[in-house]
Amino acid sequence: MASAKDQQHPQYLGDRQIVTELLAVTQPGDRHLADLGRLRVRYHGFPGARDIQTDLERLLGQWQLTEEELFAQTRALHQKGRVYTSRQEGRDDWA
């Protein structure tokens, strides 16, 4: 249940779509892991978007990862090179 102080994140609508797509993934690829990692960072401590936060937690369980494992994998991906390689695949938006 949203509290009176909950805020609407400016990127909520696009992020909600990404999270919904991720929930359908059973074998996550590099892009899926990168999306989950950046959204975990974006919504960590955010006062609102409780549904997204709950679904991000659900994805960790669904993919059998801890947050530490996810971040270790995504750090390795970003050290190898760009995960987001073209506009068709999205944009690297850490805001």
- How many helices does DSSP assign? 4
- Give me the strand/helix succession: HHHH
Q: Which stretches are poorly predicted, pLDDT < 50 over at least 5 residues?
A: none
Q: What helical percentage do the residues reach?
A: 55-70%
* Beta-strand share of residues: under 5%
Span between termini: 25 Å
Strand tally: 0
* Mean pLDDT, all residues: 89
Radius of gyration: 13 Å
Largest sheet: none
Which oligomeric form is depicted? single chain
Question: What overall form do the CA principal axes indicate?
Answer: globular
Structural class category: mainly alpha
SSE topology sketch:
Blueprint: H1 12-23, H2 30-43, H3 50-62, H4 67-80
Helix pairs in contact: 1-2, 1-3, 2-3, 2-4
In short:
The chain has 95 residues and is mainly alpha-helical. It is built from 4 helices and no strands. It has a domain at 30-81.
List keywords for this structure.
single chain, 95 residues, mainly alpha, 56% helix, 0% strand, globular
Description:
It is a single chain. The chain is mainly α and 95 residues long. It has a domain at 30-81. It is built from four helices and no strands. The chain has helices spanning 12-23, 30-43, 50-62, 67-80. Helix 1 (12-23) crosses helix 2, helix 1 runs parallel beside helix 3 and helix 2 (30-43) crosses helix 4 (67-80). The longest helix has 14 residues, at 30-43. The relative contact order is 0.18. The model has no long low-confidence stretch (mean pLDDT 89).
